[in-house]
Amino acid sequence: MESVDPNSRLNIAPLAANTSLRTLAYDAIKKAITEMDLYGQETEIRLDERQLSQDLGVSRTPIREALTVLEQEGFVRSVPRRGIFVVRKSKREIIDMIIVWAALESMAARLATSRASDRELASLRDMFHDFEGEAPTEHMNEYSDANIRFHQTIIGLGGCEMIGEMTANLFIHIRGIRAVSVRQENRSERSLQEHRAIIAALVARDADLAERLVREHTLGLAAHVEKHGRFPS
Q1: Which Gene3D superfamilies does the protein's record reference (predicted)?
Q2: Is the model's pLDDT at 100 over the cut of 90?
């Protein structure tokens, strides 16, 4: 049996047995996978049923049931005689996903110009307040988290439930891709400048400009991945 890389362990907490254990296990494992650095390591991320059982404080049966659902949804894959692995997309798949995200988030930005309150739009600036006096490279982990929250918030401010649902399963991969790419080739500096321009367009309620800037910003990520990305083939 293959050993489990300690760096691939999920950040996971024990479950409270007050609802369906399968559902709780599913929610906990999916959340942990979403928060993993999927593309920041070269090795495959293997999940261990026994370890998950210990971490969650339940038997292996609800773990297996939860993993079955997660496999059906495309989050994990079962490899005969090797185990369960977290799914990581190929470079081509990643670029296609970014293109889809660009279309959805840019529409959310357009909708936000008419649906979000002045306070909600102005609050986007607060996410980057800590980086006003210093370069994002001085606080990369914090900036990476703020970057991801920024894009999630725009989706939410659009007020379209279906866009939110459609981006939910893309997010696990988009999050990992952004976390890696923002550290490459001074993308954090360019990213911050583009975020400020997007915020200004949203606050001005310029729907055409906000939509275009968000789309171009995200397609810039696709171009970066095309040129520099190293992902599963």
Answers
A1: GntR ligand-binding domain-like (1.20.120.530), Winged helix-like DNA-binding domain superfamily/Winged helix DNA-binding domain (1.10.10.10)
A2: yes
